[in-house]
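**Entry details**
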Amino acid sequence: MYGKAFAPEYQGALTTLSVNSSLTDVLAAGTRELRAAERAGLHGEVARSGLAVAEAHRRLGQVGDADRAWKASYRAARAAGDTAAMAWALWSGGTLARQRGAFPLAWRLLGLAAELGEAGGDVVVRGYSLAGLAETGRIQGDYEAVRRLHEQLLAEARRRGEARHTVWALEGIAQIHRNTGEYDTAYALFEEAAGIAARAEDRRGHAWALRGLADIVSVRDGDVERALGLLSEAETTCRAMKLSSALAYNHKMRGNVLYRAARYDEARDLYEQALAEFRAMSEPRGEALARLGLAKSLARLGRDRAETAAELAELADELGRIGLRHAREMVARAQEEFGVGAEAVR
C-alpha cells in the first residue's frame, strides 16, 4: 500500500511544498527562505533551502544557476557539519551532471552522495543516490550492469511503501525492457507505474509513465492517435508544473510517433521544437536524440544523401564522446536505414 507521494528534496521550512508544486513556485519559496537563512546565519537551513533552489533551477533547465546553487548548498551543509545535507547537495550535483552529459562526474558525485547518505543515516538520500547511479548507467545503455540495481531499489521502495521511488524504479526497468524489444513487459511496467503515480498524486511520475506508454502504443501497436492522446495528457502536466526537460522529451517523443506514422513534415517540426528546447537548457543527450530524429525526417523529405551521411557521422562521434551507447546504436541503425555507411560508427 502506497501513501501520497512526497518530495524529500524540499526540506526545512519548505516541507510544506508538494511534489506537484510548480517549479516557479518552488524557486520563489526556496529563494525567499534561503535569503532569510543567510541573514540569520543558519548554515543548516541555508543548505536545505539551497537544495530546493538547485533542484528548481535544474528542472527548469537553468543549468548555470543550478550548478552554483548545489555547490553553495554543499558548502553550507559542510559548515553546519550536516552529513546528510551534504549528501543531498551532492545528489543534486550528480543529477545535474548527468543531465548535462557529464557522466564521469555524475558517477563520482552520486557515489559520494550514497556514501555520505549511509554515513549520515539518511536512507532516503542513499536510495535516491543509488537510483541516480542506476539511471546514469541505464541512460548510457549499460543495462546488464544496472538492471539488478534497479530491481533492488524497486524492492526497497515497495517495502517502504514509497510511491514516488517505486514509480521511478518501475519506469527505469520498463525503459530497459523497451530498449531491448520486450514491449509487452515494458507496457505492463509503465502501466503499473502510471497507476501508482495517479493514486499517489505524483503528477511528474505520471507524466513520464504516460510518455512511456505512448512510446509502446506507437512502436508495438501502431496506434498513432492513442499515443498522441497520452502525450497530450502528459504535456498538460508538464506545462502546469513547468517541467522544461520533461516537456522537451515529450515533444521529442511526439516526433517519434509521427515519424513512425510516416508523417514526416509534422515529425520534422516537432524535432525542431524539441531541439531548440534541449539546446536552451544545455541537455546534450536530448539534443542528440532530437538531432537524430530531425536528420531522419529530413532524409525522408528528400534531403541530400551526402548531408544526411555527414550529419549521422557527426552524431555518432558526438554520442561516442558523451558515452551514450544505446543512442549510438540508434545512429548506426539510421545509417543502415538510409544506406549511408553504418561503418562510419567507429
In short: The CA atoms of residues 188 and 213 lie 9 Å apart. The radius of gyration is 20 Å.
